[in-house]
Amino acid sequence: MNDKLKGYLSAIIAAVAYGTNPLGALFLYKEGLNPASVIFYRFVAAVAILFIILKAKRVALKINSFELKVLGSLGIIFAASALTLYTSFNYMDSGIASTILFAYPVMVAVIMALFFKEKAPFTTVIAIVLSIAGIVLLYQGDGNAKLSLTGVMLVLASSLTYAVYIVIVNRAKLTLTPFKMTFYIMIFAAFTVFLYSLSSQANHLIMVPSWQALGWIVMSACVPTVIAMTFLNIGIFYAGSTPTAIMGALEPVTAVIISVAIFDGMFTLRLLSGILLILGAVLLIIAGDKILKKSPDGN
């Protein structure tokens, strides 16, 4: 398997894994946990799981000062992205917020172009348009949802910090194993969320209420955190920042499938159209290299 294909497959696995996040989060919210608690316990459990994996693989935990600075920054940025997104749900419909969030592929492409002179191929631009159009179609509001300036700003902050995270992983070129890299990022992310939980009574950490809730925390730590984050880092390393960001459009597709299969959601023509547009964007990214090679000027 060549490196590009390895990167694309990793990005797809990451997006699908992250798309299972609502499964655990929705149950934990029903159990009375606030967003800070859900995120904190998820990150801490992920750290524990990754520690066991690293010990089983006999991977040395030592890192140098440069790696510490980069991983610390990534952990803080990732936590900030999660916290601003979940906080935005207090000001606006979560469906609208999740739709606006997917401005981040555009932000990644802009950052790479402005700061690293990386020109996005025409196929990538088309893929971004298709993915955003597909995500808009996947959103099913009741028609009465209102936009909040505070909510929009929070979501855009979440989108921007996530875009910056992807770019840093791509440009830092760390040589750590994916599990070790994710382990340290999660440590700093959990510590950041802990500090945030001290900011007000509304954000304080709530004790895990039941064994069933603990089970959902472990699930959230395994699939949409350890698996998603590890394969996201692999995808960024091999496929690049912008293609990996576009693959993230598969996250809401997974969430829609879960909604239909588990929560008896309605599967409509609108949803099918959105899914097909997103799949088209993903296939366009994967086939992009071959398309460009066949073009007369290679641009």
Could you walk me through the main structural features you see in this protein, from its secondary elements to its overall organization?
The chain has 299 residues and is an all-alpha fold. The radius of gyration is 19 Å and the shape is globular. The mean pLDDT is 87. The protein contains 13 helices and no strands. It has one domain. Helix 5 runs parallel beside helix 8 and helix 7 runs antiparallel to helix 13. Helix content is 77%, strand content 0%.
Helix and strand topology:
Elements: H1 3-18, H2 21-30, H3 35-56, H4 65-88, H5 94-101, H6 104-116, H7 122-138, H8 149-172, H9 178-197, H10 211-239, H11 241-247, H12 250-262, H13 269-294
Helix pairs in contact: 1-10, 1-11, 1-12, 2-10, 3-9, 3-10, 4-8, 4-9, 5-8, 6-8, 6-11, 7-13, 8-11, 9-10, 10-11
The number of helical elements comes to 13
Multimeric status of the protein:
single chain
Radius of gyration: 19 Å
Q: Give the low-pLDDT segments.
A: none
Which structural class matches the secondary elements? mainly alpha
The amount of beta strand, in percent, is under 5%
The overall number of domains is 1
Could you give the count of β-strands? 0
Distance between the termini: 25 Å
What's a quick, concise take on this entry?
The protein is mostly helical. The protein is 77% helix and 0% strand.
